[in-house]
Amino acid sequence: MGWLSKIFKGSNGKVQEDQFYNENxxxxxxxxxxxxxxxxxxxxxxxxxxxxxxxxxxxxxxxxKQLVVDHESQLKEDEMLARSLQESLGSASxxxxxxxNGHKSQPMFIPYPTGYRICxxxxxxxxxxxxxxxxxxIWHPECFRxxxxxxxxxxxxxxxxxxxxxxRSCHKEHYHPKCGVxxxxxxxxxxxxxxxxxHPFWDQKxxxxxxxDGTPRCCxxxxxxxxxxxxxxxxxxxxxxxxxxDSAVMDTNECQxxxxxxxxxxxxxxxxxxxxxxxxxxxxxxxxxxxxxxKHGHHHMPETRGLCLSEEQTITxxxxxxxxxxxxxxxxxxxxxxxxxxxxxVTAILVLYGLPRLLTGSILAHEMMHAWLRLQGFRMxxxxxxxxxxxxxxxxxxxxxxxSSSGSSSDEASSxxxxxxxxxxxxxxxxxxKLGKFFxxxxxxxxxxxxxxxxRAANHAVLKFxxxxxxxxxxxxxxxxx
Length: 482
Description:
Strand order of the largest sheet: 2-1-5-6
Helix content: 40-55%
Number of strands: 20
Shape: elongated
Largest sheet: 4 strands, mixed
Structural class: alpha+beta
């Protein structure tokens, strides 16, 4: 040890002038007549030992201070490493990140002692070197990766969704809604929020400006026309999407089997329509002209779709299916005049041409209920009551069509012999089934006082008392039972 060597060096019996003895104590030892030479020597030797011990303790104290300085230097070095990493990323402050809702935040730097920094990506010790402190954890820079593309995130900002980090571009691609019309990302409003419009039934989101920029809607399903997918233009100015066109009824002759199907539906309810009421498919202009002289009709929507006539009129009927030119526009609609003579209370049922089969059928079922009520002597009914019960019959027919498309083989086996004479059921596509559910939901969610509130009141009575009792009460009192 160092202090032993100092003792041995002091045992040569010589006293140097630069030793740590003060002059008084040295002279006092030399002048003392009673002190022998050996005592004087022992005194010098003890002082030499004390001095060596003091030097050794001083070195230990300096070594302890050096350890403290080294620990502080390590912490400073860690902070310098973090700052150098941030500078290498081109930023002057810790990286910011945003959550799925778009809020940004700055993570706090957490200095971990050496040996306790564990990477949250590879779960190994980080030790000395570059590291990131993000999302409440420590990462190797190469371990902090995007959950979508699995590439390291080296940018100044990143996003967090579901507890996973994303590049901002990847997060936008996966979570930012796109417009169903222009296929672009829906822009944010001045408040920084994503604002879009959406149809209440169809899963179609679109930019708000498309409601005012002339983007056409399908006259049947009400979906907006996507760019690059041209809707078919009918001669009366309406637009029809290709999926609705697939099951559209385009002329009077084509509609006759559907008309007969609805007549059979009324017969199963013991509500046979005794008179053979003419059915005509017409253009919008002819339907609007007929509506001017008839108060009863399925015309509460933006345009008239059906009408039950009870006066003598001459209307123009679509005689032959129009030809589609270039897949985008129908042409050469052939029409003929048809004179309606008044031989009874009901002269004809008019329905707008070019609508899908299920929508055409629901309009027919509605208008046929108007005809049945008049032929059965129901007089001067309140419009809300009459339109409400007609909507109930349209809703019931749609419901029967949707059930028949998913009917089991046991249901078919239990059908009567008279039903076996019916034409075979046509195959219905998944879209047509969904379209039927849309038409059904339109009736249920109608907010108009006459058709919407009228349907809900009449449907409640039918569900509670049955159709026959409801109609009997309606004929006697002019109101639906409560």
